[in-house]
Predict the structure.
Amino acid sequence: MRRRLFKNLVNAPVTEPLGPGGPDAFEAAGEALRGVIARHLGRSLAIREVDAGSCNGCELEIHALNNAFYDIERFGVRFVASPRHADLLLVTGPVTHHMREALERTYAATPAPKWVVAVGDCAAGCGVFAGSYACVGAVNKVIAVDLVIRGCPPTPLDLLRGLIWLLE
Amino acid sequence: MLKALFGNLAPIASHWGWPRVAVDAATWQAIGEALREGKLDLMGEWGDESAVHCALFEAATGQLHIASIAVHDGRVPSLAVFHSPAMRLERAIADLFGHEVTGLPDQRPWLDHGRWAIRAPLAARAVAPRPAVAYRFLESQGPGLHQIPVGPVHAGIIEPGHFRFTASGETVVRLEQRLGYTHKGIERLLRGSKLDEGASIAARVSGDSTVAYSLAYARAVEAALGCRPPQRAVWLRGVMAELERIANHLGDIGAVCNDAAFSMMHAECGILREETLRTCAAAFGHRLMMDRIVPGGTAVDLTPTGQDAILALGQRLRRQFPELVELYDSTASLQDRTVGTGAVGAALAAEFAAGGFVGRASGRSFDARIALAYEPYDVLPIKPVLRSEGDVDARVWVRILEVQASIEWLEAALRTLPAGPVRLPTLAVPAASAEATAIVESFRGDVLAYVRIAPDHCLERCHLRDPSWFQWPLLEIAIDGNIVADFPLCNKSFNCSYSGHDL
């Protein structure tokens, strides 16, 4: 382990600077939101992720935000374990009927001011699961959505740009 | 055993590949008894409008048969009464098709939580919706017992499901799972879908296994239509499947260590996983390689730089991964958490026919790439991996060894990659309904796909069975007698799919 730690001391970090790319990489619901978050939270944002029935593809890419390449914590963005600690819900999936109540209760448990970001094509508009007896559909059919990040799944870079844009 | 059971029955002509036979109630019972005695492995059980099918594997001969029993007056006899691994499958059949499974010991609904606008969504006739009733969890009695309900929304960035722990102090005395929260009605969406629509739904059954699901679906469709994809596509599919396995195993190894508070492994494995995903994107244009495998071949060819990118990844992994393995193996505080934790005995793994790292860590050697040797593994075999301890450590080791085997396989496959087209221009049109079953090995274990295709290339029925069906129940047993704090570790070492199971 000592050798490994020493290596990491001398090697350059793998963490990458955020390249160019702006709001065109995702679909924004309102420019105003950005100012609101900046006013209320400064540069920190606590996120609670809610899987409302996704295939887990989106979760894999949200996970990747925490790896050393993207390292989302350097921007003040942190994933938290409870909605009670969260400023923002990151919701994935075509909201199944079985997850609807859990999503509503998670939203209710999040203290105001709070925002909702729908992640992925399913959360944006039900994706390939449109028309199913088991799905409610897009997240905005259940709770108010402030920003939509499309993709199947959206890449970590898409997600990162969307969230940074909220903060800047 | 298969010969004794079905030797004098004529296989159904519309089913291609492995034989499917129609059986009567007496033979169905004989199947149940053979399963109970461990002479056959249950590889799946699924419903149809007027029948129930089961897939049976005989390890001694390497043969696979599908047996079907007709539904009479809405009733069908249970296999679970003989063989408990069929329990949840039969509860799901009752929920989705409305068949009454006679003798089924557990009659509680499984996938139907009483919140759909319809009941029995796959039944031939509409059935009135089920009223939402409180789910009755199994009882535990004793002094000082307390319950810990967890989920469906979990603390981490993971899929939703409910765990009901009953604990005595810190020790878990019972864990009961309740799943179905991510049920998306996939099998009904598949019914009537065109083959290409079906492919994009199959690719989204479980996002981490999208390559394996697409492959299982494509192989079943190709078997039913009697077409063979071009050789280059066959090999590219194998390359994608092994890249998917490496990426997922790397993620899992890091995540298990992270749940034992050893975050350095998590960070290091995370870097290798990200490099693998970027290589996938460079080689096939998508980080998870979603929608890359389609019936008739692959949707894309390897990019011009793809081959070098994968070989470079192999080199990097060969250099860096052994260091991490050594770190895992020589850190006493980490070994203290993983060795002996969450053990699954060989008998249980065999009874449940558990696939993937769960089975292979508990002495069950089944690997669809070897036991069923589908292409391209028939030409270039993968090195078998087997451990017998059955604990968290063994499941980590199976992954470590499989990553190494996959790297070797990839390098050999890329050296002999044939040239040529990657997709058939058209798929054959069947004269009448044609059906087939395929099994492929995902990183998690064997995925089964059954398709029945109408002459207009629409799916009459498509069933996809996730390996997790036979792994989730073992997690309930693995945690028994362990402390509550070790559950995340056990759970991560299983890494069962919610979405793949709930469908």
User: Anything to note?
Assistant: The longest strand of chain B covers residues 51-58. The mean pLDDT of chain B is 95.
